[in-house]
Amino acid sequence: MGIIEKIESNTTFIKISSSAKNPCLIASKKNENGTYTNKEIRAISGTLTGIFFTKFNSPKNNEEIEVVNLKLQDEGESFILQSARTFPMRNIINSILGCGDDLGKIWILVYGKQNGDKIFPAVAFKNNDQRVDRLLSIEEQKTFTISITNPKTGELIKNDYSDLNKKFKEELIKLNEKLSQKSESEPEIELPSDEEDTIETESNNKASVNGQIVDDSDISEDSDDLPF
């Protein structure tokens, strides 16, 4: 079961796919029969109207995972971008927080970035059609990151981003206090869970949810750094 949240009944839910072959956004919209249709898209744009957090139990490692939900509005359409604290989501959050008081209409693109023989999910971000400085630089993010290494070889095992995630959450809560103007009349519906079945999957690598066409040239100057 999804988490109950007051949102518009025609909301499109956006998730980040970190597929090694085709990192992108996945748009899910509820059909009349209660199932969801998934569609691959390149980008979304809109005005951030709210932020909330949900949790789910991951069957993969039997761990409770917190999900960040960003509510967007654009020309009468409502979107919720949902993701755990992945590299792409941290980059999106860092960019949003970097806008400060100038936060306006944002544009988010997720795509694959080649590094050697691997493809990493990367993010391009604009605010009011302008590239922005992130709240924390890569070096500043590293001060909130703990590297866990093999005590014998010194080889990196993994990075612990708990403190960085905590910092971003604190800043998002502050931002939401400024944004939150939720109407009491909004209907309550369930957020889709990761386990719900879909009856149709569409793929369109050029179109965004709101009809925007995205070309490869759009990412040439605004590509994000690879995860450190």
Distinctive features:
alpha+beta, disordered C terminus, 228 residues, 3 helices, single chain, 9-stranded mixed beta sheet
Describe this protein's structure.
The protein is α+β, with helices and mostly antiparallel strands and 228 residues long. The chain has one domain (10-181). It has helices at residues 87-98, 138-142, 162-179; strands at residues 4-6, 12-17, 24-30, 36-41, 43-58, 63-74, 77-83, 105-115, 118-127, 146-149, 156-160, 188-190, 198-203. Strands 9-8-5-6-7-2-3-4-13 form a nine-stranded mixed β-sheet. Strands 1-12 form a two-stranded antiparallel ribbon. The radius of gyration is 18 Å and the shape is globular. It starts with a strand and ends in a 25-residue tail after the last strand.
Write a concise synopsis of the structure shown:
Helix content is 15%, strand content 42%.
What would you report as the Rg, rounded to the nearest angstrom? 18 Å
- Placed side by side, the strands forming the largest sheet appear as 9-8-5-6-7-2-3-4-13
- Give the helix/strand class: alpha+beta
Residue-averaged pLDDT: 80
Residue runs with pLDDT of under 50 for 5 or more positions: 1-7, 182-189, 194-228
How can the largest sheet be summarized?
A: 9 strands, mixed
Instruction: Write down the overall geometry.
Output: globular
Number of domains: 1
The share of residues in helices is: 10-25%
The succession of helices and strands, N to C, reads: EEEEEEEHEEHEEHEE
Number of separate helices? 3
Tell me the β content: 35-45%
Number of strands: 13
Q: Span between N and C termini?
A: 35 Å
